[in-house]
């Protein structure tokens, strides 16, 4: 396995992540990767429109794209960021989910769902959240663009902070050029900060956790080309959750009372609506 960082660098990055609940990594993607991923996003939107959800005026998400394309496998397995993730999570790291996120220019700056934690919305279940997310920027995110905002230490030292009590202008804006990656603990309180004159923001987002007989969501199918892969450079359990049916009760689980024939896009919208209600929004 090739190494991008020294043991000391990895230890410092893991320490920063542990303290703050997030880590910003510059030049996580090369210019060539950025161009290839952007072209793949464009192709996928045209070829598989049913994989895309219009979740609000500005927010568009590509879900369950892996069965239709291998173009994003190298983002999930990106050696530079995976080296950091392995240090943070350990060799029992497993891949959980993947999505493409687009934030388009909008005049409606109040449409975001507000401060929240991922996976489980109920405040009293926050300690059940145990996953790490990575966002890879495919476009420049400047101080005038829609951006990811986070409340430092809210995964640990400030874990008793309720998202409903966080002022809308609090937190840290994580800006950076295309190629930047942001790793954050899914328990950390975060939000999308919308800006008046933003360009389109594009990110690839993946979640990882530790091997156990439970998944964080059932929206991401792991196709055979991934779970049958024999690659000694990957952690041993990396795609082991391809057939796990035990889904954590949260926003990644299809509610049992919904019509089984309901399209995935409608299921996800309904799950998000219920999640907002639980947060009192």
Write the layout of secondary structure elements.
Layout: H1 7-20, E1 22-25, H2 31-47, E2 52-54, E3 59-63, H3 73-76, H4 79-89, E4 93-103, E5 132-137, E6 147-150, E7 172-174, E8 181-185, E9 190-193, E10 201-210, H5 224-227, H6 264-278
Antiparallel strand pairs: 1-8, 2-3, 3-4, 4-10, 5-8, 5-10, 6-7, 6-9
Provide structural commentary.
- With about 280 residues, the chain is α+β, with helices and mostly antiparallel strands.
- The chain has one domain (about 5-280): Jelly Rolls.
- The protein has six helices and ten strands.
- The strands form two sheets. Strands 1-8-5-10-4-3-2 form a seven-stranded antiparallel sheet.
- Strand 2 (about 50-55) and strand 3 form a beta hairpin.
- It is globular and about 45 Å long.
- The mean pLDDT is about 90.
Total discrete domains: 1
> Beta-sheet strand percentage?
15-25%
Distance between the termini: 46 Å
CATH fold naming: Jelly Rolls
Helix content: 10-25%
Tell me the name of the CATH class. Answer: Mainly Beta
**Which whole number gives the mean pLDDT?**
92
Weakly predicted, low-confidence segments: none
Tell me the name of the CATH homologous superfamily: q2cbj1_9rhob like domain
Number of helices: 6
What is the spatial order of strands in the main beta sheet? 1-8-5-10-4-3-2
Major sheet size, sense and barrel closure: 7 strands, antiparallel
Structural class: alpha+beta
Q: Total number of β-strand segments?
A: 10
């Amino acid at each position: 396995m090739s190494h991008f960082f020294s043991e000391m660098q990895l230890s410092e990055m893991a320490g920063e992540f542990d303290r703050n609940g997030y880590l910003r990594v510059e030049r996580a993607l090369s210019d060539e990767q950025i161009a290839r991923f952007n072209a793949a996003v464009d192709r996928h939107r045209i070829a598989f429109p049913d994989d895309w959800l219009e979740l609000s005026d500005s927010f568009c998400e590509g879900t369950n794209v892996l069965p239709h394309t291998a173009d994003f496998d190298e983002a999930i397995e990106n050696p530079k960021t995976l080296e950091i993730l392995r240090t943070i999570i350990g060799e029992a790291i497993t891949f959980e989910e993947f999505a493409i996120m687009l934030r388009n220019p909008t005049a409606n700056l109040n449409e975001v769902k507000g401060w929240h934690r991922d996976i489980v919305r109920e405040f009293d279940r926050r300690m059940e959240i145990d996953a790490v997310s990575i966002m890879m920027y495919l476009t420049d995110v400047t101080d005038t663009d829609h951006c990811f905002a986070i409340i430092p230490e809210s995964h640990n030292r400030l874990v008793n902070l309720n998202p409903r009590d966080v002022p809308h202008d609090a937190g840290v804006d994580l800006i950076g050029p295309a190629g930047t990656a942001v790793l954050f603990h899914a328990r950390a309180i975060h939000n999308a900060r919308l800006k008046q004159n933003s360009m389109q923001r594009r990110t690839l987002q993946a979640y990882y956790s530790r091997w156990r007989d439970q998944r964080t969501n059932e929206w991401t199918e792991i196709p055979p080309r991934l779970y049958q892969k024999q690659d000694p450079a990957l952690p041993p359990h990396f795609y082991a959750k391809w057939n796990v049916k035990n889904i954590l009760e949260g926003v990644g689980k299809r509610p049992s009372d919904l019509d089984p024939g309901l399209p995935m896009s409608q299921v996800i919208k309904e799950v998000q609506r219920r999640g907002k209600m639980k947060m009192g929004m």
